[in-house]
Amino acid sequence: MDKKPPIIVTDRDLQRLERLLERLEDDEPGVAALQSELDRADVVTPDKIPAGIVTMNSRVHCREESSGKDYRLTLVYPHQVGAEGLVSILAPVGSALLGLSVGQEIDWPTSTGKVLKLILLDVEYQPEEAEDWDL
After folding, report:
1. Domains parsed from the chain with CATH numbers
2. How confident is the model at residue 1 (pLDDT cuts 50, 70, 90)?
3. E strands, 1-128, in order
């Protein structure tokens, strides 16, 4: 994808992610990609984030364009990764999902070097919409 889609991030997620980045070395995997996403994001308060935008701890439904395979992923902090479907914000697909809205597409670089195109079909759960302010 030549141009990255516009993204929106809550000020709460931005603050938490900036604190995470401060604790990591600049050359650690995922740090530069996440910083790049945060630098280009429009920032809003949690009560102003529209439904259908991926925020931290959101559960999403995506489809890989060429195969039609569906993925249900939850965007989490690195220490929360472990169960299937939990994707770290520092993983390439994690930082690419942050701030996306339903209908937007992203490139997902895989560990094999292949790049898959994902389309965001639904944000099945967004903490801000559910008023789960403590996640």
Report:
1. 8-125 (3.10.50.30)
2. very low
3. 8-10, 42-44, 59-64, 70-76, 86-88, 105-109, 115-125
Is it the case that residue 132 has pLDDT exceeding 90? no
Closest C-alpha to 100, from 55, 33, 70, 34 = 55
Per the structure block, which two tokens stand in for 94?
């994690």
Cα separation, 40 vs 80, whole angstroms? 25
Question: Helices 31-40 and 11-23 sit at what angle, rounded to 10 degrees?
Answer: 150
Q: Are strands 115-125 and 86-88 parallel, antiparallel or unpaired?
A: unpaired
C-alpha distances in Å from residue 4, one per residue of 19, 20, 30, 131: 24, 23, 17, 29
- Render pLDDT for 37-57 as a digit per residue (tens, 0 to 9): 999 999 999 999 999 999 999
- pTM, to two decimals: 0.90
